């Protein structure tokens, strides 16, 4: 957020917008972050003077995954005959002059760490917010910039040339899969973390973050029989239910996951648009087969054709 929250004399939260940071402030914040990260690594036994094999649990429990991570961040080959070597790239000599290019405004580089604070998106700038969401949700590899060389290796064209003039990177197919595997986050690992007033333990979070709508508000005038807004329920009771249901459980239900991925709400009634409830979940396959046979629906999955090998000529 480009500002801070504070309490006024009436104990109401107010937002105070702050001016953009200067280049010197961004540099000082970057240096402070680097020092804190180094102290954190030293406390966890991952400093430069310690043996990572003794302190890193990932290296002990998943040595192959740790090797893929290490090779990925160092830009080296993880597997094959050239393991440990630098990635091979295609360079252009006339681009070498861009090596000494300095960081832009509100950007800082310090000991391999970079901080970018030059982008500011206003609250109602929907197009800029859309571009940011597209940037965050972009895939790991752009297939249109990926091609196969005659010797079987993979050539990837970079969107922006590196400072040394590299515009293309050459991968062995197995090493490319290893680079993609290093991008997969481990289980139960939070990729997005909130700090300050947006942190989960902040006492001001409930007053700043918008409350989720109550069940049945989006269904319009018609309400399903399974909706929370039952007959005889007062508005005050509905508000109390909304406060109680403000916190989201740790795990999402299958219905919520389907809606987030496929944008299809399976619990929305097709007749009235209200919310439906799950009355019973049937797990045994014999019971499911009997119900589908009784309803005249197919109870066997469609056959799957075996995978067929295709030659490289057909792939190209």
Describe this structure in words.
The structure is a single chain. Helix content is 32%, strand content 11%. It is built from eleven helices and eight strands. α4 (63-74) packs across α6. Strands 3-8-7-6 form a four-stranded antiparallel β-sheet. The two termini are 48 Å apart. The radius of gyration is 27 Å and the shape is extended. The chain has two domains: 3-182, no CATH class; 211-294, no CATH class. By secondary structure, it is an alpha+beta fold.
Give a nutshell description of this structure:
The protein is of the alpha+beta class and 316 residues long. It has helices at residues 23-43, 52-55, 57-61, 63-74, 126-136, 173-182, 205-208, 235-244, 254-262, 285-294, 312-315, and strands spanning 3-7, 13-17, 88-91, 107-110, 113-116, 146-148, 154-157, 166-171.
Keywords:
316 residues; alpha+beta; 2 domains; four-stranded antiparallel β-sheet; two-stranded antiparallel ribbon; 11 helices; 8 strands; 32% helix
Write the layout of secondary structure elements.
Layout: E1 3-7, E2 13-17, H1 23-43, H2 52-55, H3 57-61, H4 63-74, E3 88-91, E4 107-110, E5 113-116, H5 126-136, E6 146-148, E7 154-157, E8 166-171, H6 173-182, H7 205-208, H8 235-244, H9 254-262, H10 285-294, H11 312-315
Antiparallel strand pairs: 1-2, 3-8, 4-5, 6-7, 7-8
């Amino acid at each position: 957020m480009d500002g801070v929250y504070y309490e006024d004399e009436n104990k109401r939260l107010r937002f105070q917008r702050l001016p953009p940071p200067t280049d010197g402030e961004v540099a000082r914040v970057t240096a402070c972050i680097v020092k804190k990260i180094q102290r954190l690594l030293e406390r966890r036994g991952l400093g430069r003077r310690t043996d990572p094999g003794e302190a890193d649990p990932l290296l002990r429990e998943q040595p192959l995954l740790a090797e893929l991570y290490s090779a990925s961040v160092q830009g080296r080959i993880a597997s094959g005959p050239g393991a440990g070597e630098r990635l091979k790239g295609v360079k252009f000599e006339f681009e070498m002059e861009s090596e000494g290019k300095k960081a832009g405004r509100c950007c800082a580089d310090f000991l391999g760490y970079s901080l970018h604070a030059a982008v500011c998106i206003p609250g109602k700038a929907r197009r800029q917010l859309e571009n940011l969401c597209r940037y965050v949700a972009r895939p790991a590899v752009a297939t249109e910039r990926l091609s196969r060389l005659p010797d079987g290796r993979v050539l990837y064209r970079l969107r922006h040339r590196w400072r040394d003039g590299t515009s293309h990177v050459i991968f062995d197919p197995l090493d490319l899969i290893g680079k993609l595997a290093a991008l997969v986050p481990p289980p139960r690992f939070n990729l997005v973390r909130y700090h300050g007033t947006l942190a989960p333990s902040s006492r001001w979070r409930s007053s700043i973050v918008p409350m989720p709508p109550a069940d049945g508000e989006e269904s319009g005038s018609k309400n399903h029989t399974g909706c929370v807004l039952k007959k005889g329920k007062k508005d005050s009771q509905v508000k109390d239910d909304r406060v109680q249901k403000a916190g989201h459980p740790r795990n999402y239900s299958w219905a919520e996951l389907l809606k987030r991925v496929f944008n299809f709400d399976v619990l929305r009634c097709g007749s009235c648009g209200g919310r439906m409830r799950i009355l019973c979940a049937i797990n045994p396959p014999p019971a499911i087969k009997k119900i589908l046979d009784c309803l005249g629906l197919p109870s066997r999955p469609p056959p799957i054709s075996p995978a067929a090998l295709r030659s490289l000529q057909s792939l190209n």
